Amino acid sequence: MSMIPSSNPRKRQSRDWEALQTPRSSQNACKRQRSTTSDDSPSQSRSRSRSPSAFWNNLSVIHLTRGALEELDRRNSTGRTLTCPDACSQAVTPVADYLGYCTVRTLNNLQRFARRGGPDMSDAQGYRIPGDRPQRAASSRRSASRTSRQNPTPTPSEQASTETANTKSSGPYNRNFQQNLVDHGVFPANYKYPDGRIPPLPRNWSEINERLVVPRRSLSPSRVSGEDFQKFQTADGDAFKEKQVSESVISIIDGQDRNGQCKSGGVAFRNLEPLTDGTIKPGNPDIYEGARPEQIDRRVRDELRGMIIPTTQEELPVCPNFFVAAKGPDGSLAVAMRQACYDGALGARGMHSLQTYGSIQSVPDNSAHTVTAIYHGGTLKIYTVSRAEAVHPRGHPEYYMHQLNTWGMTGNLETFRQGVTAFRNARDWAEQQRNEAIAHANNIVHTDAGLDIEDTSLSPESVRYTTPPTERTLDTSLAHESSVAGLETTKRNRTDTQGSSPTQQQKKRSRVNN
Questions:
Q1: Spatial separation of the C-alpha atoms in residues 12 and 9, rounded to whole Å
Q2: Residue 60 lies in a domain
Q3: Is residue 380 part of a domain?
Q4: Are the CB atoms for 335 and 327 separated by under 8 Å?
Q5: pLDDT, tens digit, for every residue of 291-306?
Q6: Is the pTM above the cut of 0.85?
Q7: Rounded (5°) CA angle 190-212-261
Q8: What domain range is 393 assigned to?
Q9: Is residue 67 part of a domain?
Q10: pLDDT tens digit string along 35-80?
């Protein structure tokens, strides 16, 4: 005998009454509260803001992400709605009533028709029976008419402005962000073309690798002890957010003797021209290093403003070519890779504009002059980003990202010392490349203006290094000496030219004037 649980009708009525008294707004608020308590990080929730339609239209491959589904829902909602045909409004006869009026011949035909399962109805799977759709459609038309009287239909220009205001560019937290970069010739590390080709290494690949392992006096075994390594391990274990990693961990790797005016971070590069089609967010590196604005002639800054000046705050570093993407333990390595690739391409483009300043035609260099690093979970990765000319005449230039090496910074003292040495050497090498490019652009301006570069404060001799003299490697000193020797040769040639004997006509003119 089955037992049926007894229920009190008074309690059931009270619960129904409380449900009717509960405002619908509070129920919706509870739903909103439950929907916001998800596992997504704040940055990921911001990245799901709707991207402009041009971003999705220009992608060669669209990955199945939340943003892509939201864009599909938006387009489906703005499209034409299917109207129910007139047949839907007709009354539907129940099956039992229909069979009661059928003849014997009709019943035999139905049995023969359904003997093997009947027709294939897979195409009708998921179809919603109209039911009371005419009534709902009528009520929706009445509500739509009331809404249209209260809120007039906006004009197409107003709709476009509203859509523009509600859309945001796609950022590195979106997988389709990387696809946008690839479609415009910005390739990440370990990329392979569809035909199996691999992007070529930069011409100065061996030079950079040799520079990374040059010993530094400040990191000798006598100066870096096990206690220093333990302090670094503690700082890495206490850093849970990107800001903590940048302030406490990267500061130890970078050193405390840096010039703060050449270093910044957390600032969006809104002043730079778009690298792709303008549908992705501007670069925003966690840490970047560049030159002081006064190192570059103002005429060069004005002409290359959209290439080398990342922000409208003129006191911040310009022409950055050294970037760091720092992520906490909960951060995404894939996001850091996209960010590092994007920032490095922006820096490589700016360096190329300085190196080819004053040239009528761009000369292919195929060398790397930009370094970008990633720190995530105690691991340091350093990459180069090089620029190559377009393969097709009407194509865009391509940017290649290649990994130099990887160091487990929290593993042991020796690996920690090697990683810090490589980081600081790469930073100083990027500074050297930056100073040489700036000196080239300044020389072009001063030569066109007929000025002697030694009379200016922007000569390579007066370039202020942010690294102390004791930290400079042998390569930096040799490059500095070669630039000074070049200036002395230029001065000697000009002096010889000015000391040549004048012509006889010039002598006569000078006598007449005297």
A1: 5
A2: no
A3: yes
A4: yes
A5: 999 999 999 999 999 9
A6: no
A7: 100
A8: 176-493
A9: no
A10: 443 344 444 444 444 567 778 787 878 888 888 888 888 888 876 4
